[in-house]
Amino acid sequence: MPAAPPLPPVSAPGEGVPRDPLSAVESASSEAILRVLRVALHTGFATLLVVGVVRLLAPGSAGSFPLLWAGVALLLAGVYLTGTVLEHRFAAGRTTFDPRRHGIQWLAAVTALWALLLMGSAEFAWLAFPLFFLHVHLLPRPAALLTIALMTAAVIASQWSASGEPVPHVAAVVGPLFGAVFAVITGLAYVALYREAENQRRAADELRRTRQELAASQHEAGVLAERERLAREIHDTLAQGLSSIVLLARAAEKSLADGDRGTAASRVALMQQTAADNLAEARSFVRGLSSPQLHETTLVEALRRLCENTESGAAARGMPLRCRLEVDGDPVELPQPYRVTLLRAAQASLANVRDHARASTAVVTLTFLGTEVTMDIYDDGIGFDPSLAVRAAHDGGADGSGFGLRSLQQRVNSLHGSLELEAAPGEGAVVAIRLPLDDASLGGADE
Fold this sequence. Notes:
Blueprint: H1 24-57, H2 66-91, H3 103-120, H4 128-138, H5 141-163, H6 170-257, H7 261-286, H8 299-316, E1 322-328, H9 336-357, E2 361-368, E3 372-379, H10 386-395, H11 403-414, E4 418-423, E5 429-436, H12 439-443
Parallel strand pairs: 1-2
Antiparallel strand pairs: 2-3, 3-5, 4-5
């Protein structure tokens, strides 16, 4: 019957052993030793009890009322077996009844039945040794030592009484004392091994729990990162494209109302081209690929086409916006993340210029400086207050305002770059991006 600490059951090999590979070897070794000790304990108790009953019932036995004492021995066997079976079933998870609450009562019942048998026949004296082990394991150490001393004295007294000699023989004293000391040492070793095995099990459980929590947090981080990626892609491509289509549709509707079918047709054609480009972007980032505008072309060519499309889109809306690209330095092949970040930055910035700045000129300047690449997007529009833009990017408006700047800042930060805004009401604006280059980043340009 288990108590605190519970006596481990005689279980199948490996039962209850932590499954974590980091502690499997140590746990298997400790469990093997504990199993041997448990089997020895239960087998020893059963053997000594059977031997005592056989000797008690043997012809010529000096004991009286042998059948009575045999019945008490059978009762002792039943109590002992009931405790160990209940313990084994609970440890194996086959029952919800927890016998550990009754461990001390079980030990007291077993010890009382043994003491009763000892009063009836000295043949049961040697059952004290497996009981010593149980006392060491289930009781606090001071209480265990006290009960073992009393039981040892009872064994010596029973052997002395059975011998009929006026003075106890030396062997009748030394034998029980030696057995008690050996049982105490063995019991203490068992307790130490058991506690070590429990510590290993708890450590393995904690490690498994930590790994599960880490896996869950990594999964959550991955989900959030993917959401951020999709949000950036949708904002920088689909949202801007759909916004252009809406504005072009309104402009085409106005042209039709004015009877200018030629202008309306050109605007409808531009709507179709914008929708086709957006469809290509959607298919691309759904597959986890880069912008289709960068396929089989350079960043410079992609930016030049972007400037042309910005001009034509503004013209279709009746806006006299001139957009041009300037390249300084010797262009180098950039890694794909750099190319995508710079293209998305130009797309978002020029979309803001077209939709909000009321500018007549926009200039995209791409500069290769050897150790870094920079891009400035300038416009001569109405400008804005940079602090308000930064606050909107940080707080996020209910209408989604500020998301573009926050998205661009995240892209630039992921490449250890910097993003600066220079603007003032009525004086235009400049978006300045700087991305550091080194041998490692240039080495990944072909990836």
